[in-house]
Write a structure and sequence with these properties.
alpha+beta, elongated, Factor Xa Inhibitor, 3 helices, 64 residues, 38% helix, 3 strands, three-stranded antiparallel beta sheet
Length: 64
């Protein structure tokens, strides 16, 4: 059987940690920084762990 290809969009968006968790970039960091407090922009710049329900689908797209 041929090899399964990984989903190109998901491999750009998700990062797998050493323990197997999936990390994602939080939304809301593209524009309108003047209206957002700097505390909020610092919080949004950190990576976030993907929820277990979403992680199951994303792992399938990544071929894991």
């Amino acid at each position: 059987m041929p090899k399964q290809k990984t989903h190109s969009g998901s491999k750009k968006r998700f990062k797998i940690t050493g323990s197997g968790k999936l990390m994602k970039q939080q939304a809301g960091m593209r524009h309108n920084f003047e209206g957002k407090p700097s505390t909020r922009t610092r919080r949004l710049s950190q990576d976030q762990v993907l929820s277990p329900a979403d992680a199951k689908v994303a792992k399938k797209l990544l071929g894991r």
